[in-house]
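Throughout our pipeline, every protein is held as a single compact record rather than as scattered files. Nothing more is needed to write down the fold, since each code stands for a local backbone conformation. For reference, a complete record is included directly beneath this paragraph.
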Amino acid sequence: MNMKNIVAGHIADAARAGFEGCALDAAAVEVMLEIPPEKKLGDYALPCFRLSKTMRKAPQMIAAAIAEKLAAPEIERAEVVGGYLNIFLKRSALAENIVNAVLESEGRWGSSSAGEGKTVCLDYSSINIAKRFHIGHLSTTMIGHSLKRIYDFNGYTTVGINHLGDWGTQFGKMICAYKKWGDRETVEQGGVQAMVDLYVRFHAEAEKDPTLEDEGRAWFKKIEDGDKEALEIFTWFKEVTLKDTQRVYDLLGVSFDSYAGESFYNDKMEPVVQELRDKGLLVPSQGAYVVMLDDYGMPPAIVLRSDGATLYITRDLAAAFYRHNTYHFDKCLYVVAYQQNLHFKQLFKILELMGHDWSKGMEHVSFGMVSYEGRALSTREGYVVYLEDLLNKAVEKAREIIEEKSPNLPNKDEVARQVGVGAVVYFDLHNDRNKDIDFRWERVLNFDGETGPYVQYTHARCCSVLRKAEAYANVEADFATVTDDEAQDVLMLLSRFPEAVRKAMDNNEPSVITRHTTQLAQAYNKYYFEHRIMDESDPAGSAARVKLTQAVRDVIKTGLWLIGVEAPERM
């Protein structure tokens, strides 16, 4: 049940009844409906200024004519203020309808079948082989993971792709270093860090002996040519990396359907390059081969270097064709930092110029950069924050807070993991994704304000109320007792949750859900402190307030799940 949609339908009916020949429908009205800035102005407001052009009447007259014809069981009254039609809902009816609809959805409130029969591919996380997972990978991983859940929730078939960075001369250098100074046992025990140490040593030694660079290139050539030993070591490096990173993915609750990385497309580029040639799009330029994009305000896209080597865009073109032919996607989303804006504009334009209409479903879901405690991260300067270390530190800090505030809490370690990891994820997904993030501990693990622990604590508070409310389980609820302003604020936020989910999907913006869920938690806490939930002298009212609490718990849990955060029942 979408209250906004219901109200829009009644307004559209009234408009058609009041104006002969009026073709206004609910969908058009729903887009126009606004939330008034103050409660005294109603629950919804219809600005009639845009309608005056088609109806050829003053906005006030249009609002008055619609108000006169407006009659619906959900609407208490309609008032005309200037060119606005302000709608006031029947509070007890709103409470009963919304609470029952949420509870009947059984944890699926806000879901839809909008994507039924459609597929969306999501390219996210995309870690580099033989490099440690750092905080810079947090946004791509969690935005992608959240979007996968949001699209699933709306009926899409989703394909999560971890496009591994597993191609390039650096892997030849790593094999060279391993052959000279490494051994299997050290790498198995040390994991990615052992490989990083070998790579650092290679560069230090190459400064003294430049011939090492040639040896490194020679080993990469062996990988390209399918040399058995080179491929075995290369494949093993990938296995060690994925084993290391799996610990982080397990902490975050993230999984993928495909780990096809750059190397997977090594034998799939030639047909794409040939098609570019056949269509006259690939032209020589200073020894290289490029696609000219000047007419579209972009520099040429280099597809083949002068030595015949391929580039990222060549492999991304091959990947796009593979994904379309394999998954027949309706959408293909690339969750990659905004520094790659040009790359994806070029990629999508080339596919369009090749005449492939399915490229219209491809989209770059960009995001901002992460700094740590006010300082920009820099691999070159050696200032890197590894994600596993960050998450473990968050869990540790959460454990200390729990020990201080709830020393008798059962499953302290499990709750500390849920709160610590949840705090990090929530912080990352709270702001618009294109905004840069400055990660600061005093904000992340704060139990007050717009934070993950605050929302999780509200969920736990609801669970606590419900554990004590068994006496009201079979009592018929009197929803006339939840018509106060605080309860109505909660109810309106519950009713608008499906809109938030749809907006998050349409804009590929998980923060819409994060903020809406936070507002719901804040509204419920205000209600909780202003009103006694259970009162033995008022069993019917208590039953209504308990049901409202149950609806809030369910929607907070759903909201947290959609952004990849767990909801502890006790804190």
Remarks:
- The two ends are 32 Å apart (CA to CA).
